[in-house]
């Protein structure tokens, strides 16, 4: 096991890329911009999926599945949506390969098999879903439609990075339709809160809930709610968005319903999504120069047990005891792996599980057998302690809860230390350069100012926090009046 | 609720198409050949996924995710695979749309954004996965690789039918790599058995396990194991396949390992899959002229409770009692819906849940309140009985188990009655025409005979049953020697 991980301080970006590959989360594939999510990485994604799916169902949503392809004309229907998304995408133009007559064993595209209308590989599914909803909604009794889809989507990104920006990625996309505006707005806010609850309590990543400015908003939306997280390098990462679509898609796809008075009205829509990008946020929030650090709620293996022995008799005695412990831990719902490979030394195993972020490591040697103890090591703070074997399963269970909590607290502290209120533009720039993070500043509310600041500093408005204090002030860039602070940051 | 379902006897195919749509399982989309899987249908698919996924993990497999796209050259690598699959498929040739300069609001494919190499939307993932495995396998210690993927795939079918044959469909595909031939063969057989166990015990569909003949085999495989089911119209349906790939893909993608003696060898492969096609098998095995019949193991709603009342007071009294029952049933793991809609009459509700195949319906009216009873109706045999409320939850739970078993028995009986041994070709044709089903006959083992029989009767060899008796005989078509019977049928 060669660790040789680049240090975060040296090159944060390189550290991230190396770690994702070395910890067996994902790797680049033979297809430009597309990744392979490896079993260990996928196991974490499955845990995220399971928890989110449960939350979606608890809030009344059902899953369904819509086509991968969207005919070009459907994209054009919602003009702003088309502007925002449809440009950089994978386009299917033909449906058959044939043997190359000039080159045996080679295949070429059959020129006769050209599609009448090109198909876009979905970059998002509003168009195909709203064109379907038209057939599903007649009366107010058919509403609300509360539907989610787990799917792959494709956006033809030129510069890609594992999990953070890939041509194909996995996500869920909720698409709901409602009889009233207020109900749709409530739904958008509810799902933002579901995301925030999940990311904070399950992934141990603190987020700011807020609204996007017009220029950062989803093209087809009236309002975009978001949750913004802060990575260890001081850059922000948008962890999830929830859009209030108004009647934009209903009008584009003619989705009307008869209200209680029998009058025809357009329905109100929302859409909301999180993606495998969250895997990137997970890595960049908690991990360190030794490798991954995983919150226990997401760790495929929560506890690894490593035997330390010289003789076969010792190993047998250790194994007998460990097998009992494993049963006790599993009964408490703890996922545990007993690493009794004889092909590798304990030091190698320690390094491997450290790299893979297993929250707790238990080592047991002949001394421990004599004393009735185990050595328990925490991955996050790299501490060790010797614990009596009596009741150790309860100790372990509690320790996992404690780690989950402390990882969150640590990330909150980091964010607190990297959120700075500034009142003039020189300070703005210097804070951004020196320590990064969120810069809380007054803004005059114009797209122009936002654009100027972005061009000068690369910082964008991450969000208008929902819990911001209404306070009058002067824009940090123009000095024009402002009604409250917004959060700027450089972002992924 | 308009049922008006075509009768199976009148037009089986029409009955199927109507039922899938009316029971809210799926519908055709605005994209040629692609379906929308509706929430009720998807809920059934999710139950299938959950059970299969559990079985895969119990047999040591992990999930992972590989790219949607396969570069054209990768397909060419395994020649037979390319012949078998790559022809009819969706081909991405461009990666950008642009505004049409001649037609405001319209989008056209940007001719400058042509891909250097075309990308095929995966019809199956052997090529992309084996090109990845090359990087994952160095030594025998890296083997076996036991990986599964849940994914969408695309095959450009000209004539499509909901679930049975669609351009895009959902499936799982297992892809494993082994150090020895025997281990790979064992894996192929193991996964065929996992499928058979699932389809029989969970879906209540009996299957024949067998081997495909050369002409029905997966192009890149040395041997294809399959499970074959029989539908109510006497046609067979291939419910799952498991391929022993030999070293074909290992050689095509140069996947070698150092064995225990340090010698380089090619690895041995398998792949295996089942798809949303199983939804079609489910509908066509159990359902009837009144609608869906679902085995309790797969029913999203196992029990529906319908109140029958004239006054609000009656409804309240019924609801109080039903709420207690619902809790008791849920504690037993029974999924139950209380349909207390006041917008619809009981008769409408009965018809709706009948159409949707809910296994048990409980009705309760004022008389039942007085007598301490419920009326319990079975969907599968359309029977009714009055049951005392004391301990009814246990009665219901047992009844569900009984229904699951009886559906399977009924399907086995149907298959037994529709499996005919024939010994001459006239009989072969007449059985096939009069009652269909499996025709068990001797075959001389040649592709030519198989082809001739297919051309004359539309029947193909569904499989060489694994449990067939070795018996010498004469081919039903040529009279040439044969070593045992094979199963012929017309098939989906």
From TrEMBL, chains A, B:
InterPro entries per record: aa-tRNA-synt_IIb (IPR002314), aa-tRNA-synth_II (IPR006195), aa-tRNA-synth_II/BPL/LPL (IPR045864), Anticodon-bd (IPR004154), Anticodon-bd_dom_sf (IPR036621), Pro-tRNA-ligase_IIa_arc-type (IPR004499), Pro-tRNA_ligase_II_C (IPR016061), Pro-tRNA_synth_II (IPR017449)
GO molecular function: proline-tRNA ligase activity
Compartments, record wording: Cytoplasm
Claim: ATP-binding is one of the keywords in the record: yes
Domain Aminoacyl-transfer RNA synthetases class-II family profile: 27-295
EC number annotated for this UniProt entry: 6.1.1.15
Annotated keywords: Aminoacyl-tRNA synthetase, ATP-binding, Cytoplasm, Ligase, Nucleotide-binding, Protein biosynthesis
Location, primary (coarse class): cytoplasm
CDD domains: ProRS_anticodon_zinc, ProRS_core_arch_euk
Pfam families for this protein: HGTP_anticodon, ProRS-C_1, tRNA-synt_2b
TM stretches of this protein: none
Catalysed reactions, as listed in the record: tRNA(Pro) + L-proline + ATP = L-prolyl-tRNA(Pro) + AMP + diphosphate
HAMAP family in the record: Pro_tRNA_synth_type3
Family: Belongs to the class-II aminoacyl-tRNA synthetase family. ProS type 3 subfamily.
Function: Catalyzes the attachment of proline to tRNA(Pro) in a two-step reaction: proline is first activated by ATP to form Pro-AMP and then transferred to the acceptor end of tRNA(Pro).
Domain notes: Consists of three domains: the N-terminal catalytic domain, the anticodon-binding domain and the C-terminal extension.
Subunit structure: Homodimer.
The name this protein goes by in its record: Proline--tRNA ligase
Natural source organism: Flavobacterium jumunjinense
């Amino acid at each position: 096991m060669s660790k040789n991980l680049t240090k975060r301080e040296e090159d944060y970006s390189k550290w991230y890329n190396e770690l994702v590959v070395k910890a067996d989360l994902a790797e680049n594939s033979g297809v430009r911009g597309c990744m392979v999510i490896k079993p260990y990485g996928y196991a974490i994604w499955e845990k995220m999926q399971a928890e989110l799916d449960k939350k979606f169902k608890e809030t009344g949503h059902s899953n369904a599945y819509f086509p991968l392809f969207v005919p070009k004309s459907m994209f054009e229907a919602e003009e702003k949506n088309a502007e925002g998304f449809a440009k950089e995408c994978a386009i299917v133009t033909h449906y058959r390969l044939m043997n190359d007559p000039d080159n045996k064993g080679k295949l070429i595209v059959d020129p006769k098999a050209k599609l009448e209308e090109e198909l876009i590989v979905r970059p998002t599914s509003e168009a195909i879903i709203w064109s379907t909803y038209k057939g599903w909604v007649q009366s107010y009794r058919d509403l609300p439609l509360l539907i989610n889809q787990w799917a792959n989507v494709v956006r033809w990104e030129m510069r890609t990075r594992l999990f953070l920006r890939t041509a194909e990625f996995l996500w869920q996309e909720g698409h709901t339709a409602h009889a009233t505006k207020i109900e749709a707005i409530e739904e958008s806010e509810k799902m933002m809160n579901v995301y925030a609850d999940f990311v904070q309590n399950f992934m141990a990543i603190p987020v700011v809930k807020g609204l996007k400015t017009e220029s950062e908003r989803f093209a087809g939306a009236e309002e975009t709610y978001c949750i913004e997280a802060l990575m260890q390098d001081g850059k922000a990462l948008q962890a999830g968005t929830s859009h209030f679509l108004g009647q934009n898609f209903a009008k584009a796809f003619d989705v009307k319903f008869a209200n209680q008075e029998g009058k025809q009205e357009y329905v109100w829509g929302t859409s909301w999504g999180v993606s495998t990008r969250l895997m990137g946020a997970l890595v960049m929030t908690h991990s360190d120069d030794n490798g991954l650090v995983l919150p226990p709620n997401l760790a495929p293996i929560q506890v690894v047990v490593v035997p330390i022995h010289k003789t076969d008799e010792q190993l047998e005695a250790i194994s007998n005891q460990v097998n009992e412990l494993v049963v006790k831990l599993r009964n408490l719902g703890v996922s545990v792996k007993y690493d009794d490979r004889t092909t590798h030394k304990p030091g190698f195993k320690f390094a491997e599980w450290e790299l893979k972020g297993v929250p707790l490591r238990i080592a047991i040697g002949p001394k421990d057998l004599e004393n009735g103890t185990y050595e328990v090591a925490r991955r996050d703070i790299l501490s060790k302690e010797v614990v009596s074997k009596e009741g150790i399963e309860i100790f372990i269970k509690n320790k996992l809860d404690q780690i989950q909590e402390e990882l969150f607290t640590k990330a909150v502290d980091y964010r607190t230390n990297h959120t700075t209120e500034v009142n003039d533009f020189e300070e703005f720039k210097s804070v951004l350069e020196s320590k990064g993070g969120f810069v809380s500043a007054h803004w005059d509310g114009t797209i122009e100012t936002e654009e100027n600041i972005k061009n000068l500093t690369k910082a964008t408005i991450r969000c208008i926090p929902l819990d911001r204090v209404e306070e009058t002030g002067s824009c940090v860039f123009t000095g024009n009046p402002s009604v409250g602070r917004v959060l700027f940051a450089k972002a992924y």
